[in-house]
């Protein structure tokens, strides 16, 4: 049997978009010998090779990926591109890590040339790991967002990003003001939101580094531009939670601070959500806000264990994220590995199908991007990756004995990393191909 694509295909899995409540099992479709036809950056047909091959025009370029698995490109719902150069920095916890490593590193983004160079490396690294969409924090400097969007746009990647807003409780050299933060964010979103595949996210770093005036200004922008994204951090670390309560004493909970300023709504994404209570989880659900679960970061910084069982129980929209540089890997496969173990500790068996769903169609659904990304359904943007079950000796040995799709995907999630990603395509274009001899 053959596989092709470009017009092309291979033995392919395709996650179709579905309602958030739809289980991963219902969302998945698997083709043992598939053909995916891509034209002008979109998927136009997908089906069994034997049924579709006859429809291919002569002269169509066919890429044969037999023996590999095509899946939608991964979606990382929370990552900091300026922290690329400080990944794997040791610290006793979140707040000293921010003070001693993060802020000095982010200062360097006052230089747009440095920002452009880091953005380029960062996107290369995402491509190596099979991540085709990410929700990206820039720094407080408008030029950092400009540099990121310019690089992403040049590659025709679908990225969501924003300039960080912070006007207090951080070094002077990283501060904006309520007014300048709002003005610069508005300029950037008018320039980039909807330019090509770029999307903007209003990005107040977290409540402790924004004054009430800044969160208020951010809420006004959110009302004025209802289709932009919002991203921030919440309830990551117990010291941080205590600090947020001290700074906003009138609010019921840390999450309620954001709610008070109109920052909880569909297309808002909150990193971590570890120390939420049940009322918070239900509020996230009712608001249509997304929790970005960042297991490698939470373990690395000792922040705590995300309660996956409680998140599921409350129906809180949840997706996976690396949170580099707090996270210790750019790979969504490594992130699945850690998420599985953390979910186990909360009493939930997180299946591989569910993890792949969370990293593709589930994330897209929660972000309102289900018609564009996270799926191989006809009509979607052609962002997809090729996974190689023989990428490493151990993967080859384990996957040779896999008896189901679940076992195959589980092996990728537990044993895989960037080496498992044979190729990454965005909008139908090959952006990364791993040399065969690695
Ligand atoms: N909280 C506020 N800023 C940050 C950050 O850069 N990383 C993490 N992990 N948490 C934060
Ligand atoms: Zn973060």
UniProtKB/TrEMBL annotation:
Query: Its annotated pathway?
Result: Purine metabolism; guanine degradation; xanthine from guanine: step 1/1
Enzymatic reactions: guanine + H2O + H(+) = xanthine + NH4(+)
Which InterPro entries does the record associate with it? Amidohydro-rel, Guanine_deaminase, Metal-dep_hydrolase_composite, Metal_Hydrolase, Metallo-dep_hydrolases
Write out the similarity annotation. Answer: Belongs to the metallo-dependent hydrolases superfamily. ATZ/TRZ family.
Q: Which gene encodes it?
A: guaD
> Under which name does UniProt file this protein?
Guanine deaminase
Query: Ranges for the Amidohydrolase-related domain?
Result: 70-430
Please name the taxonomic classification of the source: Bacteria, Pseudomonadati, Pseudomonadota, Betaproteobacteria, Burkholderiales
- The species this protein belongs to is Candidimonas nitroreducens
Q: What is its EC number?
A: 3.5.4.3
What EC class is this? hydrolase
Q: Which GO terms describe its molecular function?
A: guanine deaminase activity; zinc ion binding
According to its UniProt record, which cofactors does this protein need? Zn(2+)
Question: SUPFAM superfamilies from the entry?
Answer: Composite domain of metallo-dependent hydrolases, Metallo-dependent hydrolases
